[in-house]
Amino acid sequence: MTKRLDIWIGGGLLAIMILIALLVPFVLKGDPRALSPASRLLAPSALHWFGTDQLGRDLFLRVLYGARISLFVGISVALLSSAIGTAVGMLSASSRRLDGIVMRVMDGVMSIPAILLAIALMAVVGGSVLNVIVAVTIVEIPRVARLIRGIVLSLREQPYVEAAIAAGTRPAMIVIRHLVPGIVAPLIVQATFVWATAMILEAGLSFIGAGTPPTTPSWGNILADARALWQIRPTMIFFPAGFLFVTLLAVNMLGDGLRDLLDPRQAPEG
């Protein structure tokens, strides 16, 4: 019951955030980058629900548009790292010679803290949403690859796979019929955690000025703008941080629920 509740709550909150991100340009009129020096640092009101920042930009618009950036980065990184990581993991598990080389490269990448590696990559390619996606994807590929490699190596030892090999079944058919079904569930769960990690990394990179350009409304940029003004307008921090917290909570609840549902062995007793 608990695992289904996590899925329903997490999925529901995430669906709301995705709807907000998709519909905000059509429902709300206004430019989140529009400057209004005469309206700077206004408190929340009926005209500006979340107030305004130091440049007079409407925080309500900026926070809602920021959801588009965070969710787009999270979903893109989850899909790309899952696809590439699966290919790398299966390739590594297919050959002992390749396994040693590929896994040492993956271990080398994983030995560097994720945020430091992402910062280094962004310093090379420059700040943009696309570059953030590329940098964070590179950071997350090794984690997916190691997971898939371990699963494939375990599945290869199963009697039904050994029987298929002994019967002369083509390798491609063994992969499609026996290996792919075994990795789908763990991959879906891993993708949700990659999604959450990608949003955290994007916000962190933007916060320190190494992520999305300052003109792009993202939760990290909004928090960066607010850090020097939190004593004057604490709501400038609370609103974007609250939206980021709720989104991360939703993704993690969905991932936990899916993990317990798809792999009953990891479900808590009782």
Residues in helix, %: over 70%
Unreliable stretches (pLDDT < 50, length at least 5) are: none
Strand content is: under 5%
The CATH first-level class comes to Mainly Alpha
Oligomerization: single chain
Q: Give the count of helical stretches.
A: 9
Q: CATH homologous superfamily name? A: MetI-like
The count of DSSP E runs of length 2 or more, i.e. the number of strands, is 0
Q: How far apart are the first and last residues' alpha carbons, in Å?
A: 10 Å
- List SSEs in N-to-C order: HHHHHHHHH
Shape: elongated
Q: Please name the CATH architecture.
A: Orthogonal Bundle
Roughly how many Å is the radius of gyration? 22 Å
Mean pLDDT: 87
CATH topology title: MetI-like fold
Sheet/helix structural class: mainly alpha
Number of domains: 1
Major β-sheet annotation: none
Write up this protein.
The chain has 270 residues and is mostly helical. The protein has one domain: MetI-like (MetI-like fold, Orthogonal Bundle). 73% of the residues lie in helices and 0% in strands. It contains nine helices and no strands. The longest helix is centred in the C-terminal third of the chain and has 37 residues. The protein starts with a helix and ends in an 8-residue tail after the last helix.
